[in-house]
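Propose amino acids for all 390 sites.
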């Protein structure tokens, strides 16, 4: 039997920033029932699993426990393991694949009997601020047990390919229709909301969207705002793991907070330049920002610090700036591009975007899972036949 359920353990919440897990799993839900199990939340009430809908075919499982331990801490796992086993038994789920976004949840495999194990390595989590010391050891164990390992970009692929025989490099993709001019919805509520948020801000507008944490070069963001008071520098996204009071403040620097994925194209529509002002540190060494292709699909020129995957994959269409002065100069060049240069850039971006889609990436993963399970079944038959003939 082909398993019809993906049991996913994630350090990211489904209703957080819409990114790789949501893009892939919402599309794989056409083939599988998806149980998206988030990190436990402290709750003074009874230990339980809170279940809600995350879209067609996706169930969000949010454990609530009396423990204060963060994330998939070991004492949380002791409570969570029996609850997950009971959930699968109660739903009569016998054929399933376990999918990890964080190796910290690896001990939850005890008591489970998946047909296959997938590790989607979208970040080098051990390089992030506050990473638990056991993360590297658990990842090494997960690499030994996984049937399939996915990486979110070429840098991660190069770092992981020697530790597993079946590693697929599947860089961040894009839903081009969602961000393209032709694909934008005519929903007046979204237009109105975008106007409320930034309609009064002066042009040109230079914008970023995504998580704002230790990966962001806040000094560079400040430098951009100081470069020209006429520029509106717009930062869209939740501020996490850093003190919100630590972000720079300028009259032309605007922090708009987390906004919905549906609203992003309407916000970008009013921007002149898309920004990737990432710091160069251990936490950004392996990142492959999803927003790079999304800026392109929206037709916006993009300027980035020399993030390896951005330079490797998109250096021909994204301006790469190695110093703050270069970054400011690249923004000026983007704002002053000629009609001919704009035409050439848009054509190059369209070609680049056409080569990548979340639908295609999800299809490649599904094919790899089907092929892998078929190969496992064949090996099982061959081994049983060999034993019978012996």
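Proposal:
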């Amino acid at each position: 039997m082909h398993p019809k359920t993906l049991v996913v353990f994630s350090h990211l919440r489904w209703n957080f920033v819409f990114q790789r897990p949501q893009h892939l799993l919402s599309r794989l839900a056409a083939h599988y029932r998806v149980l998206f199990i988030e990190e436990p939340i402290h709750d003074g009430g009874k230990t339980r699993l809170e279940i809600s809908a995350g879209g067609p075919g996706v169930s969000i499982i949010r454990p609530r426990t009396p423990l204060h331990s963060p994330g998939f801490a070991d004492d949380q796992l002791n409570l969570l393991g029996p609850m997950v086993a009971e959930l699968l038994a109660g739903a009569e789920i016998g054929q399933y694949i376990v999918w990890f976004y964080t190796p910290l949840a690896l001990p939850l495999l005890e008591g489970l009997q998946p047909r296959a194990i997938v590790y989607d390595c979208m970040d080098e989590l051990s390089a992030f601020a506050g990473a638990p010391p056991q993360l590297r050891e658990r990842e090494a164990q997960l690499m030994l047990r996984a049937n399939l390992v996915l990486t979110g970009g070429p840098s991660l692929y190069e770092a992981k390919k020697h530790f597993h025989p079946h590693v697929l490099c599947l860089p961040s993709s894009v839903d081009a229709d969602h961000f393209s001019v032709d694909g934008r919805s005519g929903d007046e509520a979204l237009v109105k909301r975008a106007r409320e948020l930034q309609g009064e801000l002066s042009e040109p507008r230079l914008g970023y969207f995504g998580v704002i944490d230790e990966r962001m070069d806040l000094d560079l963001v400040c430098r951009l705002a100081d470069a020209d008071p006429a520029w509106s520098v717009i930062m869209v996204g939740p501020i996490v793991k850093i003190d919100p009071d630590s972000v720079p403040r300028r009259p032309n620097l605007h922090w708009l907070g987390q906004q919905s994925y549906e609203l992003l194209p309407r916000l970008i529509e009013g921007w002149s330049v898309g920004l990737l002002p990432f710091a160069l540190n251990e936490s950004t060494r392996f990142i492959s920002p999803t927003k790079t292709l999304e800026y392109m699909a929206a037709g916006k020129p993009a300027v980035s610090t020399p993030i390896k995957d951005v330079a490797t994959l998109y250096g021909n269409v994204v301006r790469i700036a190695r110093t703050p002065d270069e970054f400011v100069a690249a923004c000026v060049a983007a704002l002053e591009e000629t009609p001919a240069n704009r035409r050439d850039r848009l054509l190059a971006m369209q070609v680049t975007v056409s080569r990548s889609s979340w639908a295609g990436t999800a299809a490649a993963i599904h094919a790899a899972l089907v092929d892998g399970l078929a190969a496992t079944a064949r090996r099982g038959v061959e081994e049983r036949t060999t034993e019978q003939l012996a």
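Residues 380-389 have pLDDT under 50 and may be disordered. The chain has 13 helices and 15 strands.
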